[in-house]
Amino acid sequence: MITLRYVPRSEFDKILTAPLPPARKAALFAALCRINVLYMVKRAGSGHLGTSFSCQDLVSWVFLNEVSGADDVFFSSKGHDVPAFYAALSSLGRIPFEQIHALRRLGGLPGHPEVHIPNMETNSGSLGMGISKGKGMLLAKRLQGKKARVFVLTGDGELNEGQIWESLSGAVSRRMGELTVLVDHNKIQSDTWLHRVNDPGDLGAKFRSFGWRVVRGDGHDIAGLARTFAALREITDRPKVVIADTVKGRGISFMESFGAEEKFYGFHSGAPSDEQYAKGLEELAATAVRLFDEAELDRPALEEYQHRVPPSSPQIRHKLVEAYGRALVHQAERNQSLVALDADLIKDCGLADFSERFPDRLIECGIAEQDMVSQAGGLALKGIVPVAHSFSCFLSARPNEQIYTNGTERSKVIYTATLAGLLPATPGHSHQSVRDISSLAAIPNLVLVAPATEREVEAALDWAVNVSSESTYLRICSIPCILPFEVDGDPKMTVGRGSVLRDGKDAVVFAYGPVMTSQAVLAADELRGDGISTKVVNHPWLNRIDRVWLADMVRGASFMFCVDDHYTHGGQGDMLIAGLAESGWPPGLQVKKLGLSDVPACGQNDEILRHHGLDAAGMAQVIRASVGPQR
Amino acid sequence: MITLRYVPRSEFDKILTAPLPPARKAALFAALCRINVLYMVKRAGSGHLGTSFSCQDLVSWVFLNEVSGADDVFFSSKGHDVPAFYAALSSLGRIPFEQIHALRRLGGLPGHPEVHIPNMETNSGSLGMGISKGKGMLLAKRLQGKKARVFVLTGDGELNEGQIWESLSGAVSRRMGELTVLVDHNKIQSDTWLHRVNDPGDLGAKFRSFGWRVVRGDGHDIAGLARTFAALREITDRPKVVIADTVKGRGISFMESFGAEEKFYGFHSGAPSDEQYAKGLEELAATAVRLFDEAELDRPALEEYQHRVPPSSPQIRHKLVEAYGRALVHQAERNQSLVALDADLIKDCGLADFSERFPDRLIECGIAEQDMVSQAGGLALKGIVPVAHSFSCFLSARPNEQIYTNGTERSKVIYTATLAGLLPATPGHSHQSVRDISSLAAIPNLVLVAPATEREVEAALDWAVNVSSESTYLRICSIPCILPFEVDGDPKMTVGRGSVLRDGKDAVVFAYGPVMTSQAVLAADELRGDGISTKVVNHPWLNRIDRVWLADMVRGASFMFCVDDHYTHGGQGDMLIAGLAESGWPPGLQVKKLGLSDVPACGQNDEILRHHGLDAAGMAQVIRASVGPQR
């Protein structure tokens, strides 16, 4: 147990009502916001501290002084800095203050901006869309005859994305003087320094070459920011960008520090340890006290929350991404032509070891998935085996057309997509990849595979590299899972065929990936107590089915359930059903699809599985309701 | 009938073996190539003349003088200039010369580059991927220890695409001195002048700000180009771009001419009329003769081909895009909040009248689909009804993630996608949109509708604007169609329900869109002669099904056929089958999906329908094979 502390709203009111100059007021406000950001992320168990801290001064200034008109708009395009926005908005009463206790909880504040939360102007999560969105809002206001100023906050890593540059020209030709972009230029991307990932060069020159008015300044010097924004108000004939030099992790010394010798920045995402929390809070509180003293205000009083994290289970957890990383090194040792491409997610895609072992065979592309995938296509056309990596939500969608074009060339590319499926549910729907099967499955020459265990990850990669003549999309779950089933021997990768995890005769359940197979097996075990005998099949092939095997699997069963870690529309279930129907529907067989029918909710993993009826109890209930009455 | 003329290979050999200085040789070569480009496009009945002519001098110089090493690579990123490449490569013997007679024919030369044609390095069609592809090829060569120079030709309109700018940084940090990008800067996009569509501003400054070496010159002054390329060979520490000022339609006076008062450029795509052909050939031939005379070579002798175009049918053709354009104006007259967004396809999306009538409500975004779709999202969030337009192959894929993000916001956006489906088949697979249903259908709050008739287009748009609370994707066929069925009264837009075009009792066929419904009706009429009674249902809803209605539609039938103008995987058929299965599979019903299982072929429309078994005869054969033996 650890005591967490947060700043109650009354302390913010003290600042807001005090007769202080705007810059000093904003500095005090930001100092308190940082304490609540730390609180929210620690309590949630995950979140993005580094980027929230780097933009907190900017965010505070803009909310307190710039978005004054009824139609003014301010939002973040990078989105993962949303704790900074929540801290500011809750303190201003623009979202219910008590919501700060429910970051990343069902019914609470989502891990990335969502429009159902007041004053969240747009959904974000995937990078690079914000300037375009802001332009649209601004044009709407113009059409409606309303005066509105639009402020869009972007990251600097985010500027890797092509859509940013695609969006700039139109703002100039339409003379969007109402539009101001703020670049939180903290110089560190997800993994490491910008210049090591995708060197931005002279950002100011780039924006200027596109016709924008550019100013650059210290993003933590609020008095300076105040002068900058005042000057920019006078410029009305063109869009403007403020490149704000900031420090990632600003406010906590050890989060600010990132030595040239270190490989990865430590505080991009995730919650701090108890010790880090305590030390960080101490620093943030000391800063706040100093600023309050200087402003001659009573020192702020924090409130307490007793935080208890349930002890972690001693059971073995399958870590598919780590297994993947080892397997990739193993393949690379044997195949000189194997090259990895990355989109600023080395750690999250299991590439840390690979990057140490084969630095010349790692092509770091930055947050530029389209460029990465087309480069992979070029490599494949010239005899290399490229393996392109990103989160599945991004890899399946942002370069969707590029993947298809590669597919039409019949070259062989491997796409490794981590963070696949409904879980983790804490970042929210922009990171819950539950649409990738549908958006990719029709692509010719591309086989989609979702392994359920560490050994199946190894086997799937081996199959993709050494057996398949087609391209492969590896759909890998990123959360460590406790598996309630044993896996004997090496998984056989026979296209379109899966394996039986539990045998049974009344119903057969098809699932894939560690989360859904586990819940299905637990459901089957629960149903056994009701006298319902349920077969559970792990079928890792998402767009290939062996119809003979499938007919054999369902033979004798009266009920078939297709569990998708995905929307039910366009998932594996549709393929299984169509395959069965085209070979002749087994007389009397009833079928039901389980999965998502609407945008997934954000929250802790267990509550979200339950919410969508995809935990073992929910599955058992559906199966019982179907099978039970007949017995 | 008209006599077409082309330059035989022997005339090219005459140039290639003559002792001429390289620049003069290339100029002669290009002059002859233009004659064959005109021939190919006229004979094919479609193609892109303007852009082929503007880059022909560049293409000729590079093939003759720059790509000399075994591993050197040269390709076009814009792709629709492929006639210029075919003309050059066929004359050099690098593709079989006789293929110039088979542009856009099955088994001939595809309408856009495809890698199965020799010396076509990569598939293109969608814009903006080429620099990334070239970087990948270059990295492959480096890894293989080979020396290779990579030349990528781009359009200037193409520079609207974000991927272009996304791809630039990595080339600098990896010091890609082997890479040269050529910009065919003819100043005219698909519809009109660049500066009217998406003003590029100072292109040189932009590339320079990204760290590239920039040179600019006259793209038709081959001697100047020769000096430019010689100088660029010395620069090896960074990527280089040649911004070549060119004239769209270069070589034919009336194709070069585009007055400031004209709204649309007339020779971006399509074949010239007989008169235009004759006049154009006369000019090209006169230029060639002059150059040959100056070089003191025997004048070139052309060969002849008697070209006969079958007379067009007097039957009424349904023109869905034109109907859409009228319907949109009709809606806009009634709804001040309706705004159209366009991606440089005003003519092809039926927006010409709208742009005249409501210039302030047309947001021209240029070839920047991601920016367009996110702007539409911003507009929708602020109370506007945005209608975003492009070809369905691009609109469904390039901004796929942006459409999903809009969907998660539950705002209402209408996406109008023309050029949908297998036909026209002449541009090739990059423009044959046969994957859009799968890539979009799972998106929550997005309804996909494919109207089959002009009146259904009107009804669908009316439904999307005035009835639906969700977003709509309108999938519209662009080729004029003769419909073998009558449509009585106004189509009813009842979600998930279609209409019966032919009644029958032995089999029921589901189809959508004008092409597939027509072929299905013709098949049913043919089968009637065999005593097979076939019901044909037009079901325009691609991701919505009324299961009660569906069960009613198939009642009594023993066979069900689902025709998709799409890959069979993830098309409407999968949805119908899953819907039927979940409501209880009708005993004894057999089902078969018809559609595409692999990348569609390029060719004339009738031959491609036949090739894929999706013409009436092919459908009838499948139905007969299933139903027949049982009778």
> How many separate domains of chain A?
3
Instruction: Give the percentage of residues in beta strands of chain A.
Output: 15-25%
Overall mean pLDDT of chain A stands at: 96
Q: What is the CATH first-level class name of the largest domain in chain A?
A: Alpha Beta
Provide the low-confidence segments of chain A as ranges. Answer: none
Overall form of chain A: globular
Specify the CATH architecture of the largest domain in chain A. Answer: 3-Layer(aba) Sandwich
Number of strands of chain A: 20
Spatial strand order of the main sheet of chain A: 10-9-11-12-14-13
Q: Biggest β-sheet of chain A, characterized?
A: 6 strands, parallel
Please report the two chains with the greatest interface, counting residues with C-beta closer than 8 angstroms to the partner's C-beta. Answer: A-B, 116 and 116 residues
- Give the helix level of chain A as a range of percent: 40-55%
**Terminal Cα span of chain A:** 49 Å
Name the structural class of chain A: alpha/beta
